[in-house]
Amino acid sequence: PVAILALEPSCLSALHDEWQELRGGADDAIASHIRASSFLVEDFLERRWDAHPRRPEIRADRGPGRLLLHGHCHQKALWGRDSSAALLQRLLGPDRCTTLATGCCGMAGSFGFDAGKFDLSMAIAGRSLLPALRAEPDATACAPGTSCRHQILDGDGRRAIHPIEAVHAIVVGS
Questions:
Q1: Cβ neighbours of residue 81 under 8 Å, at least 6 residues apart?
Q2: CB 143 within 8 A of CB 162
Q3: C-alpha to C-alpha distance for 167 and 114, rounded to whole angstroms
Q4: pLDDT band (50, 70, 90) for residue 124
Q5: What was the pLDDT predicted at 26?
């Protein structure tokens, strides 16, 4: 296969870091191949942009207005926020896609769903993520992590979209 694509940074992290252990010590060459062939879908599209024989047609209005991208913790720690931001900035332009300099959203998988941890979860979100979003109430929030998008909805009341949903809104005929 050309690539194994993941929509969720934590799923990609599992392919990169946990797959071999889950397979009970499978062949190192297979694990290395899986690791080298696995990408976030938006990162794969950006990496292969120049190699593709056709370019998508971009909507005249370029889809969403301003986009505020919050990176997932696994993503920021392992590959950097550009693994989602580069394609979005290519399609929207850097002035319409801002990568937020935020820490953890506070959800951390199921952590924020626990009734005893909800207040702490929201306090973590309130350190950098929620203030950054509230500073631009008309912008579209975007996050590759499911739990991040849920936390944005709970903490800010807006529905955050996945980077591929943003691409879908930008590209004609998608």
A1: 69, 71, 75, 99
A2: yes
A3: 33
A4: very high
A5: 60
Query: Distance between CA 96 and CA 157 in Å, rounded?
Result: 22
**Top-confidence residue, 109 or 161:** 161
At 145, the pLDDT band (50, 70, 90 cuts) reads very high
Give residue-wise pLDDT tens across range 2-35.
899 999 999 998 888 877 677 666 677 777 888 8
Dihedral (CA of 21, 26, 29, 33) sign: negative
Give DSSP secondary structure letters for the chain: ---EEESSHHHHHIIIIIHHHHTTS--HHHHHHHHHHEEEHHHHHHHTGGGSS--PPBPTT-SSSSEEE---HHHHHHT-THHHHHHHHHHH-TTTEEE------S-TTTGGGSTTTHHHHHHHHTTTHHHHHHT-TTSEEE-S-HHHHHHHHHHHS---B-HHHHHHHHBTT-
Q: What is the CA radius of gyration of the chain?
A: 17
With vertex at residue 98, the alpha carbon angle to CA 92 and CA 153, rounded to the nearest 5 degrees, is 105
- Calpha distance 24→122 (Å, rounded): 38
